[in-house]
Each structure stands twice: as structure tokens, then as C-alpha cells.
Amino acid sequence: MIDLAIYNKEGHEVDSLTVDESILGGHVRYPLLKQAIVMYHANKRVGTATTKSRGMVAGSTRKLFRQKGTGNARVGNIRTGKRVGGGVTFAKIVKDFGQRMPKKQRRLARNSAILAKLLSNNIIVVDELTFEQPKTRDFVSVLVNLKIDRSCLVTINSADENLYKSARNIPKVAVMPVAELNAGDICNHSKILFTKEAFVALLDRNENDIREN
Known about the structure:
Layout: E1 2-7, E2 13-19, H1 30-43, H2 103-119, E3 123-126, H3 136-145, E4 152-156, H4 161-167, E5 173-177, H5 183-187, E6 191-195, H6 196-212
């Protein structure tokens, strides 16, 4: 069991929450976590780099001069990769670097990432995180009160436009609904800031998955 403190926006502890490690998989599966991180990085890779092969450049296909008798080295047409203006010998083509993982493996990797952050005291839970109007200054003050001075992933239960607009101009801070949480984004941020509602929803969803399986 792990005891997790719950803070308010002023940084004062107002409640606590007990988390059972078994709900998050019991232990950190590092090989699976690495596989998930590699997948998420690969899926962000844009494979649009292309170059023209000799079949794509303009130019005649006629042999420049006869094979023998000229004293020159033998040569083909003007589009060969050996000549200026010719095509690239091994031309790059559009490539999809995307990878896939089964849904259960993605969930296990996400839970392992959360458990790793939890064991290293890099998860902070706040009782509520709402703003009457978008205000970056107010959101920055919340981060200062919670002593968050590094990259942070803010996880909420449902979309909140005021919160999104308050955080979008802060460097290295991202806002994400708990339903979209994944191992790649978790590991790309030093801290995770959960609202209490979002964290409880995550634990309840994991408990339901365990019962179904």
C-alpha cells in the first residue's frame, strides 16, 4: 500500500489516499515499458523524406556515346547517379515507421509508468483544479504552490477549456484527459499532476479491468 497526500491549490495537504500497487500491476514491467516508449516515439516519426531516383529526373535515356573506341570510360545515360543532375542511386522513399501494440499491453505499460512515478514520489494529487476564466498567472501560482518546477503532465477527468487555455502557454506543461493517458507522455514528463477525480477514475477503471479479466 502507498499513502498519497492530496493537496489543495494553495499547496496545503487536505486529505490522503491509499493506493494498492496490485491495481497498477504490482510491479514495474521495464521491458514492456521500453517497448511502449519506442512505439510512441516511432509513431511520432514523420517518414516523408524523399529523393529522386534516376527514373524520376528529367533527361534522355540515350547512351551518351558508344561503348568502345572513344578513349573515355564507358558510361550510360545522363540520368545516372554518377553524373551531376542525375538521380540518387539509392533514393529515399516515403516510409511509415509506425508500430503497434495490443491494447492490454498498452494498458500494462501505462500502469507501469504510473507506478514508477508513484514509487519515485513524482505524482501529485490536487483536490480540484478549476478556473472561472482562463488565466495563465493563476495556473502558474498553483504549480509554484505545489512545488512543481519541472516538466509536468496535468491529468484531468474530463475536458476543461479554461484549464487548457490557462496552461497552453506554459513551457513543458501539457494537459490531458485521463482516458488518453499513455506510457509515452507519462515518461516524457518529470511530474504528473492528477486531480483527485481523475486519479480515482483511473483506479476504478483498472479495478474493473481486473475483474473482467
